[in-house]
Design brief:
One of its GO terms (cellular component) is DNA polymerase III complex. The protein has 14 helices and 5 strands. It is α/β, with parallel strands linked by helices and about 325 residues long. The longest helix has 22 residues.
């Protein structure tokens, strides 16, 4: 199945496969939730089946996928039972070493092997350095597909060895059609809020609906519009997040706040513009730190609320 916005990436992939020499490392770059991992799996299957190799259903022995593992034995049990589970914050160097050990053997079914790393921007520093050695001297017939939500977090030496394939944002009209089809029970206002908050990412839009982020989004917009001198709205923001939010919901709240500010930048007055830009930059930094640090959920949402409030400050003072 070809996802929305994947037509051009598929054209590049098929052109590369039919060329004389296929590049050994690819970086699939684009927003989280745009379907890059889905593309990576299907592209890898097309690659290793080149030449008529039979394709087993389910996992393919010549496609290795490295992703964040369950954070402990309890979460591993949940994964094995098919339940939602929490993961570690990074892809470890041990996982890279185990993959490299596999590369000393021949592919199982054909002459090619594909390595998918998702997301590659969550590699430990030592894991990145270890991966670099494989990218510098790749075994014959081995190809790497690095899924990257934020390519700038990867080592420049890794980026320089990859051919970049960019996945475009999905237009609002196509997002609306997707949500109407996948979440028909959602009302028009919530659907439009999801589209605005997702900023071109179908996965984020669906996440918005599934995790019921509408109230969180509404309070965030109110803080930016009105400020929060009495800290009342920041209290509402904490309530909207919930007492024990999952790590994924915490990360989604940062992305949501960034979307709120990004949309505000487009309509900001000259007085408010610098404050919004500064707050957005701080959220970008926070979003890069959050996946690897153990933030207290209460402190994190308080920080998000304060940054949103700071974006409204200059405009409020201008009207005093």
């Amino acid at each position: 199945m070809e996802l929305i916005g994947h037509q051009e990436p598929w054209r590049h992939w098929h052109d590369a496969m039919s060329g004389e020499r296929m590049h050994h490392a690819w970086m699939l770059a684009g927003k989280r939730g745009i379907g890059k991992m889905h593309f990576a799996v299907e592209a890898a299957r097309a690659l290793v089946s080149d030449g008529g190799v039979s394709m087993p259903e389910g996992n393919h022995p010549d496609i290795l996928t490295l992703e964040r593992l369950p954070k402990d034995d309890k979460e591993e049990k949940k994964r094995d039972e098919g339940k939602p589970f929490e993961t570690k914050r990074n892809i470890s160097v041990a996982q890279i070493r185990a993959m490299q050990k596999r590369l000393t053997t021949r592919p199982t079914l054909g002459s090619k092997r594909a390595i998918i790393i998702d997301p590659s921007d969550d590699l430990e520093k030592s894991a990145s350095n270890a991966l670099l050695k494989s990218l510098e001297e790749p075994p014959i017939g081995t190809f790497f597909l690095l899924v990257a939500h934020r390519p700038s977090r990867l080592l420049p030496t890794i980026r320089s060895r990859c051919r970049i394939m960019r996945f475009p944002d999905v237009p609002d009209s196509e997002m609306d059609a997707l949500l109407s089809r996948e979440a028909p029970e959602v009302d028009h206002n919530t659907r439009q809020a999801a589209i605005m908050a997702a900023a071109g990412s179908p996965g984020v839009a669906l996440e918005f609906v599934e995790r019921d982020l509408g109230r969180l989004y509404s309070v965030m917009r109110q803080i930016v519009a009105e400020g929060d001198d009495g800290f009342v709205l920041r209290g509402q923001l904490t309530d909207a997040l919930g007492a024990r939010p999952s790590r994924d919901k915490l990360l989604a709240s940062i992305d949501l706040a960034r979307s709120v500010l990004a949309s505000g930048i487009r309509t900001a007055s000259p007085v408010q513009y610098p404050a919004i830009v500064a707050a957005h930059a701080e959220l970008v930094t926070l979003s890069s730190q959050a996946p690897t640090y153990n933030f207290d959920s209460g402190l994190l949402i308080a920080e998000i609320g304060s940054l949103l409030a700071s974006a409204a400050g200059p405009r409020d003072r201008a009207h005093v």
